[in-house]
Amino acid sequence: MISIVNVSKRYGKTQALDGVNLELPAGKIIGLCGPNGSGKTTLMKILVGLLRDFDGDVFINQHAINQESKALISYLPDINYIDGKVNGNYMRTYFNDMYSDFDSDKFDQMMKLMKLDINQPFNTMSKGMKEKLQVALVMSRKASIYILDEPIGGVDPASRELILNTILDNYDPQALVLISTHLIGDIEQIFDQVIFLKEGHVNLYDDVEKLRNEHGMSIDQLFREVFR
User: Fold this and answer.
1) Is the pTM of this model over 0.90?
2) How far is Cα 41 from Cα 71, in angstroms, rounded to an integer?
3) Domain ranges of the chain
4) Given a cut of 90, is residue 18 above it in pLDDT?
5) Where do the DSSP E strands lie in the chain?
6) Residues paired with 195 in a beta bridge
7) Rounded to whole angstroms, how far apart are CA atoms 52 and 105?
8) How many CB atoms are located within 10 Å of the residue 101 CB?
9) Alpha-carbon radius of gyration of the chain
10) I need a labelling partner for 158 at 20 to 30 A (CA). Which of 21, 128, 165, 197 fits?
11) Cα(111)–Cα(127) distance, rounded to whole angstroms?
């Protein structure tokens, strides 16, 4: 689904990514884990076409990143991207006009499930409510690839569980889901595979169950061992 070939990215003197090679298959939920500054967000921005000034190659379904490949990806950034004055109803219309694969009915169902008022202005919502709305928009697309950057970062445990259930209940099992997180203990149960990024390098990439069996510990515990 995604081929990443010798990808490097530098910001001035800082090497954000250094020779990253990965093959990410369809039908998997993959965790992208690493401490702050390890290159997670940079890699995701490259995959969705927001960063073009990098070395190496990225292929989506065997094609270089272009408008067609971007249309396959539903992306949740790690920052709020909705204007504070608008509400869920406005964003529903916006996404429906912007994306041919957006399912308005699915969005309405998710809003009700998460007990969100579709007419509430974004700037009056709590952090958890904002994250739920943004997840609902992203997961209402019938995408081939979902790239979610810290979808549960900074929200309370109850909201984390609801957000994770929303992701699991609304993605196509044939799709690729790439999720970055530093809250590994809260989310590792949904991962099929996990990537550890360390200082811009791939430190580890393997099946979650294989890693648990080989090391006799959770992915969260393994992460702490690798990065302590």
Assistant:
1) yes
2) 19
3) 2-227
4) yes
5) 2-11, 14-24, 29-33, 55-60, 63-64, 73-76, 145-149, 176-181, 193-198, 201-207
6) 32, 205
7) 35
8) 13
9) 17
10) 197
11) 15
Q: How far apart are CA 97 and CA 79, in angstroms?
A: 22
Whole-number pLDDT of residue 16 = 96
> With 0-12 CB in 10 A as exposed, 13-18 as middle and 19+ as buried, what is 145?
buried
- Tokens 């073009």 belong to residue: 52
Q: What is the pLDDT of residues 39-87, one digit of tens each?
A: 999 999 999 999 999 999 999 988 898 888 888 999 999 888 899 999 9
Domain 2-227 fold:
Rossmann fold (3.40.50)
Confidence of residue 158 (pLDDT cuts 50, 70, 90): confident
Q: Do residues 96 and 142 make contact, with C-beta atoms less than 8 angstroms apart? A: no
Strand order from edge to edge, sheet including 63-64: 14-24, 2-11, 55-60, 63-64
Which amino acid is residue 113, in one-letter code? L
Displacement of CA 61 from its chain's centroid (Å):
18
Nearest Cα to Cα of residue 131 among 75, 74, 189, 78 = 78
Encoded tokens for 54: 């990098």
Residue count (the chain): 228
